[in-house]
Amino acid sequence: MGQSIVVVDAFASEPFTGNPAAVCVLPGPADERWMQLVAREMNLSETAFLYPEGRGFRLRWFTPNVEVDLCGHATLASAHVLWGSGQLRPEELAHFETRSGLLTAHKEGELIVLDFPALPPVTCEPLDGLLDLLGAPVRYLGRNAFDLLVELESEAAVRGLRPNLERLAALPVRGIIVTSRSQDPAFDFVSRFFAPAFGIPEDPVTGSAHCCLGPYWSGRLGKQDLVGYQASVRGGVVHVGVRGDRVRLAGHALTTLRGTLSA
Prior knowledge:
The protein is an alpha+beta fold.
């Protein structure tokens, strides 16, 4: 019998919004090459593989091209699958051992809340060709261990950005987070995320980017609890709570597909 796989829309309030992640719950460790091939076959920004380990689960994330160190939406999707399948009771905390250490998830009503590391940006000088690549005035430029953070002058500039993805893929970072204050009072900020070098031209909703966005906008706005909207074609809402060196990332999740791998 084949291995089951589930597709979940994470940070989504209704089907076919947010960011879809494939989740594969395994009985034990699997071959890395097989996992990468499955992720390539699924062709989503992330495919998550998890199996029981210690008091929780080992969790690994693969883009169509590479394994990554941190992923928010596929972690949220994984917790959703574990509770939905009965492998965890609804009141149980989900423990995930990952390349970024221990991550947890719990339920608060309809929301799934992730406990992730805070990854604030440090102000940096522009990389060669970056400003030309963006083609828009930059208010702030910073960098953390994974990404560049770029604040633009307006939400319209963020939404209208059309970066050169081929040139962006050559930069020595995972991706670029582009952000601004939100014009909609329901949100504190908007963002977009591009990571073509990792096989993700534009990610629909990026939980790990909010590990950077949360501390940045918390400092700018003087608030610990914020709401961000990722302005991709699919769009999605991320509730962010900054708590010292950790962030709480919260959102909804919906199952859209269940299947079986035949290979």
